Amino acid sequence: xxxxxxxxxxxxxxxxxxxxxxxxxxxxxxxxxxxxxxxxxxxxxxxxxxxxxxxxxxxxxxxxxxxxxxxxxxxxxxxxxxxxxxxxxxxxxxxxxxxxxxxxxxxxxxxxxxxxxxxxxxxxxxxxxxxxxxxxxxxxxxxxxxxxxxxxxxxxxxxxxxxxxxxxxxxxxxx
Length: 175
What we know:
This protein is mainly β. The protein has a domain at about 70-160: CATH 2.40.50.140. Helices cover about 10% and strands about 25% of the residues. It is built from four helices and nine strands; from the N terminus they run αααβββαββββββ. A hairpin with a 3-residue loop joins strand 2 (about 95-100) and strand 3. The longest helix has 5 residues, at about 70-75. The mean pLDDT is about 85.
């Protein structure tokens, strides 16, 4: 029946002969038959995935290189510092000498002069790495590092100072 032959046709007399090829001679006339696996035309909507308002899942980024152990990270002391004074470092286009409270007064040299004028910085609260070894930069000893994000804004690369969303006491630990 599925081959287009009559069930009484002698060419399909038994199941044992069903696996033999070449039994149907060229030019044999076949009967109309019903498809074993009919097409799903007109039913495509039923098998499509329902639309959802959910965003597609983004692939997870591969882990960063040079991963730092948590115990090592805990050794870094991040604090909120308030800038009380700022001035350009002589003979430098990039450096600003900052005086900050964190809560003690300290001097930090930051490479942000191309992005901020000294007068813009006074009174701002920033995040600093407070327990770095002092380093002499252009003749000025720096006792920490100001954290900033490097971002592209309006097609221009800029350093954006890290801060807190609300004013806090200078010296507060960041965790």
